[in-house]
From TrEMBL:
Lineage: Bacteria, Bacillati, Chloroflexota, Ktedonobacteria, Ktedonobacterales
Entries under NCBIfam families matching the protein: pheS
Location(s) in or outside the cell: Cytoplasm
GO cellular component, one term: cytoplasm
Gene name, Swiss-Prot/TrEMBL: pheS
Alphabetic keyword roster: Aminoacyl-tRNA synthetase, ATP-binding, Cytoplasm, Ligase, Magnesium, Metal-binding, Nucleotide-binding, Protein biosynthesis
GO biological process: phenylalanyl-tRNA aminoacylation
Annotated cofactor note: Binds 2 magnesium ions per tetramer.
Keyword ATP-binding: yes
InterPro entries: aa-tRNA-synth_II (IPR006195), aa-tRNA-synth_II/BPL/LPL (IPR045864), Phe-tRNA-synth_IIc_asu (IPR004529), Phe-tRNA_ligase_II_N (IPR004188), Phe_tRNA_ligase_alpha1_bac (IPR022911), Phenylalanyl-tRNA_Synthase (IPR002319), tRNA-bd_arm (IPR010978)
Species assigned in the record: Thermosporothrix hazakensis
Binding-site positions, Mg(2+): 263
Record-annotated Aminoacyl-transfer RNA synthetases class-II family profile domain positions: 123-347
Record-stated family: Belongs to the class-II aminoacyl-tRNA synthetase family. Phe-tRNA synthetase alpha subunit type 1 subfamily.
Name by which UniProt lists this protein: Phenylalanine--tRNA ligase alpha subunit
Enzyme class: ligase
Amino acid sequence: MIDQNEALLDQLEQIRTKAIAELEPVTTMAELEEWDIRYLGRNRGELKNIAAVMPKLTKDGRRAVGQKMNAVKSELESHLKARREEIRQKELLATLEKERIDVTMPGRHLPVGHMHPLTRTIQEVTDVFMKMGFQVVQGPEVETDYYNFQALNIPADHPSRDMQDTFWIVPGELLLRTQTSPMQIRVMKQTRPPVRAVVPGKVFRNEAIDATHEAQFHQIEGLLIDDQCTMATLKGCLQTFARELYGEGRQVRFRASYFPFTEPSAEMDISCGECNGKGCRVCKYTGWVELLGCGMVHPKVLREVGYDPKKYRGFAFGMGVERIALAKYGINEIRLFTSNDLRFLRQF
Ligand code: DAH
């Protein structure tokens, strides 16, 4: 028995020496892992093999061999821990060396986008009206015949309903709105006076396309209803708007016009910014540029939405966004807005 104990203690000492010797050349985590499994591994480690024969020893033998084994095990474990730390430090240094960042290197330029000129124009116009207490609302691009035409006092045989102008989805019933005016009806039906709203949005017309006409463009509609409103309110409000948008020096004028949903109706012109009213190509030598259509909301329209025309009045207006942007930026080709040509868009 003594001999067997001695032999086991001897074996443990050999394991210890061998393990320490084999740890010497280990330089990577993978090698260290192998070493760990070989000597300290729970299943096949060399120490484990000795632990397996322990139950057969005498009490004294178990104690002596057990003590030695624990001593060897903890010594090897502390070697393992120390080497693991060494390797980790070495690898970290290697990574830092390899991935070194040069903070003095010039940065890479990331191009910054900006707003489309039409979006900007819409925002500038609605901002002016928001300052005057108007709300900004939006509505559907697919409309019914009722909202786009009937409720706006546009009878069945009106030229603007012509197949040439309207993109019908279900002929006579459903269409792509040809104007933002149907939102007048929707807004009035949803609220009670006083009403103050502006509606920017896309509109569609089946038109021949050229430098100043597109089948899809944008309008901004406006509506004000209360119990005091007169034609003077309309003029004051729209004149203030024009001066806010274009600057104090500009003149406005109103010309009589016709729209089925307003009575009286007018068009508002602004003095030409290009020639200051003297006459040039931009204003076709008239000194004036057309800005918007407007008028007092027709009593028929008020009755249609359940407002009493004796009690409430209001005015409405509508303007083309492309036309404002063309004039503002001196562009002569409407199709550029939707051509997605960055050389064009980057100028704004
Ligand atoms: N909807 C008209 C158009 O597309 C523009 C317009 C004119 C709107 C007069 C209005 C208005 O609200 O009062 O030509």
